[in-house]
Design goal:
globular; mainly beta; single chain; 9-stranded mixed beta sheet; 174 residues
Length: 174
């Protein structure tokens, strides 16, 4: 009788859910609440435009097609700092500053949300990487629904942006 119990225990141990990966390098994780609720983690990619001191970070969950992107305008170089986030329609000329958007997809709808406020913080930079936190308020681009997003980005790899890069409306010092 002991042998069948041992076999059942061994089979049950083999069916355990594998542990979640502990290495978060290169990942962007975020949770949203409000008109919609959910959470996801996706590989992140970042591009640095030295000509405009602009960092662009994108993450798309290929399983759900949910995507989060943000742009950070830094004073001159990439360093740990808080970046207040404003709506893209705001004519802002200060730095540091951030803009963000979220794409939510279902079987029947595609909804785009634009950030209306919040903060994105760069907490660390490493050789070719950036790490930080996300705290956003967003509004549906063509509607009144709102969301809050909180998340992190961990050691996302940065590649140089192709020249010319940056904002078309950038005022150059002359």
């Amino acid at each position: 009788m002991r042998i069948p119990i041992v076999i059942v225990l061994l089979l049950a141990a083999g069916c355990e859910k594998p542990a979640a990966p502990t290495d978060r390098t290169g990942l962007v994780s975020w949770q949203w609440s409000g008109a919609l609720q959910g959470e996801t983690t996706a590989p992140g990619s970042a591009r640095w435009c030295g000509a405009d001191s602009l960092l662009e970070v994108m993450a798309v969950d290929s399983a759900t097609d949910h995507g989060l992107g943000f742009s950070l305008l830094t004073p001159d170089s990439l360093a740990a700092a808080q970046h207040p986030v404003v709506a893209g329609s705001v004519a802002a000329n200060w730095r540091p500053l951030g803009f963000a958007a979220f794409r939510w997809v279902s079987d029947t709808a595609l909804k785009g949300f634009e950030a209306t406020g919040g903060t994105i913080a760069i907490t660390a930079t490493g050789p070719g990487t950036v790490t930080g936190t996300i705290d956003l308020r967003l509004r549906l681009s063509q509607g009144i629904d709102t969301l809050a997003i909180r998340g992190t980005f961990d050691a996302v790899s940065i590649t140089p942006a192709s020249e010319p890069c940056g904002r078309l409306t950038k005022i150059r010092k002359g």
